[in-house]
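Example record

One chain of 676 residues, shown exactly as stored in the release files.
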Amino acid sequence: MIKKILIANRGEIACRVIKTAKKMGIATVAVYSDADRDALHVKMADEAIHIGPPPANQSYIVIDKIMEAIRASGADAVHPGYGFLSERAEFAEALEKAGVAFIGPPPKAIEAMGDKITSKKLAAEAGVSTVPGYMGLIADGDEAVKISGEIGYPVMIKASAGGGGKGMRIAWNEGEVREGFQSSKNEAANSFGDDRIFIEKFVTQPRHIEIQVLADAHGNAIYLGERECSIQRRNQKVIEEAPSPFLDEATRKAMGEQAVALAKAVGYTSAGTVEFIVDGERNFYFLEMNTRLQVEHPVTELITGVDLVEQMIRVAAGEKLSLAQSDVKLTGWAMESRLYAEDPYRNFLPSIGRLTRYRPPQEGRSDDGTIVRNDTGVFEGGEISMFYDPMIAKLCTWAPDRITAVDAMGEALDRFEVEGIGHNLPFLSAVMRHERFRSGNITTAFIAEEYPDGFAGVTLPAAELEELVALAAALTHVSEARATRISGAMDNHRRVIDAAWTILDGREEYPVAVTAKGEGAYLVAPREADGGNALSREIAVRLNGWTPGDRLVEAEIDGTVRAVKVDQTLKGFRLRRGGGDLSLACLTPRQAEAFRLMPEKVAADTSKMLLCPMPGLVVSIAVEEGQTVEAGQTLATVEAMKMENVLKAERKGVVKAIVAKPGDSLAVDEMIMEFE
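Predicted structure tokens for this chain:
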């Protein structure tokens, strides 16, 4: 058996591998860049070795540095995780020559399947249905336009060595092909050191469904069901689940058998994933094979009970699979939400900085039988770096059926506390409540179709809004009661807390009366007042141990337990739940009367400025001072977290001044250029 594993990766996947290795009694070695000196995976491993500066192309994807770390540590095996060197055949070959076990497939399988052009040719030869496209190398934008016209729009431009949405664009016309081709080449070169691009037909209304395969070196191969990965943004998966709500048993079997046949055809061993695109008639087409452990592997583990990392280690040690296809049983339903350092209120732009608060929900099985699992590589006080992928954590839930798993995910998201950076928790919560998602009627266009103008938060149903108004009133009563407790005060001078309050949601008023009903229990009732929105009912609120300053309250509202994030503001509370974000002012009737006379603050006019929407590096400026630009014209390109973001003009105008230049590192909202 393997004795010491070096994990050639970072973040949550490095932590994930370390957990299983420790369970198996195997020593672990972490590698880290300057940016990751204090990272969680470094602390979890038995030993750690420094490998260079923060940029991945100077540390994590430099084969010589990893090989040097292997020699220094004496590791007899390497797990590559995903991304970085996980699908580089030359890395697996270097390990083979050094006599070090690669916890992954053979170099030839990586070369055949990891290259998306070659893999499609092999799949077609093996009789696997593939999407129409051009599998040869494409020299330049002109050739890309010619090929796209022959295939027929829309087309998908993809990096041959790509993954994780990097180097991938959808183009609907010639102009988008030219722009997308160059951006895809740039992203592919920066992320993978390989700028080869291919083009294929983009299937409209598609579902992205993938099959998990597992094979050993003794000729055994099985599939462990499928994962539905259709909830994507910019071709990057956001929410995954297993099994798919769309497949029937016959389609699942056919896809699984094709995936296994393809794996056997290339001599594949270890865990791998065969990705398919599935249309509305359950016709499926091979997309690519990922010759590594997938980000979303936990949902498969939850419904099968198979530890995929353990199986990868055992296969690399030469063992036979302990499972036959007949042993694979899919039990219950699992969901995974990818928590990203992306601000949904700013069109999901990357956010970097320090995690001033990081409190995930409690993991494990609850009394109702549901399971919560959180795979992460960060900790409170840690930093989200601009140099790597913006993933913070992968939150997973399991339940006997899909809707229960979705509800469990919604509850777990409500209990997940993250502060200090922008993040997509509100968006994930909103999706869990979306009726189309809950019905399972989803495609890869779900986010684009349901949030065409971006995400602006959730408008809570009236009944739930009233519950949060009542909660704010109860929290106010607790805060006021605490303020009356002054040591040394005379008994007959204690301040009496008035029952009458006005809760303001923006300019909307809710006059209420709060009555204490015992320890932590309150009755919030509508109060007669001039104007305002009267509550539709009396609402009973019980606060389970909340004290002012706590950032999460578990409140029983009309008999139902609700987890709500709480931030105390100058005159009230900011309450967040289910994607809703309310800033409620809690005022006395007299204060509310004065508030009505206050003028509304007008936001500063930035309409004539192009501001950097995220911290990033200016790649290029596409216009000049004095130039007239049209709506939709490219103005600049900014790179952040390995993704290129093209900034375009919102309307026609004339460039007055350009204050940034290529190579500049800009902070969020820093000016790039100004218009007349």
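Notes: The CA atoms of residues 523 and 540 lie 5 Å apart.
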